[in-house]
Amino acid sequence: MASLDEAQLVGRIARGDRAAFEELYRRTSPWLALRLRRRCADEQLVAEVMQETYLAVWRAGGTFAGDAVGGTAVGWLWTIAARRLVDGFRRQARYAQVRAVAVEPTSAPAAEDDALAREVGGTVGDALRRLAPELRQVLQAMVLDGLSVRETALLLGVPEGTVKTRARRARIAMREALS
């Protein structure tokens, strides 16, 4: 198994190979947990997303198109996890709406903003936090998470051209803020 790359492991998983699944999990779970924790401070939600993600990989390994669309198995895995995380945030928001009948709203930074503040500080961090949320999301995905334009587009659910435009606008805004 050690000589196989992640895409080959996913192919074997699609055929029900439990050893390939265990190897993919061993290789990718520490990385995936770290990426999820950068975007969410709730350990319970991260654990749920990890479980849902790997369950989806086991069930839907055959849907990975791989090199045919220019994606990587790790990018595919991250896309699944990111969507599960968004679903988790939505579940939490619905639950919070039901509970918050007469609770006065408070202002708290988002988990992503907390992670960003820990990761990038000083002048650069201040400039990043002043960016419009959609520009900051693109920079986070492409720079901090190391995703390609295609993977970022899949993650954010926007066309690739939109990702490129937002990345350009974000670079210009950062350059102006830092000069």
UniProtKB/TrEMBL annotation:
Keyword Transcription regulation among record annotations: yes
Keyword Glycosyltransferase assigned: no
GO terms (BP aspect): DNA-templated transcription initiation
UniProt keywords, alphabetically: Sigma factor, Transcription, Transcription regulation
Domain RNA polymerase sigma-70 region: 24-94
GO MF, one annotated term: sigma factor activity
Signal peptide location: none
Classification via InterPro entries: RNA_pol_sigma-70-like, RNA_pol_sigma-70_dom, RNA_pol_sigma70_r2, RNA_pol_sigma70_r4_t2, RNA_pol_sigma_r2, RNA_pol_sigma_r3/r4-like, WH-like_DNA-bd_sf
Residues annotated as domain RNA polymerase sigma factor 70 region 4 type: 125-173
Family named by the database record: Belongs to the sigma-70 factor family. ECF subfamily.
Name recorded for this polypeptide: RNA polymerase sigma factor
Species of the source: Saccharopolyspora elongata
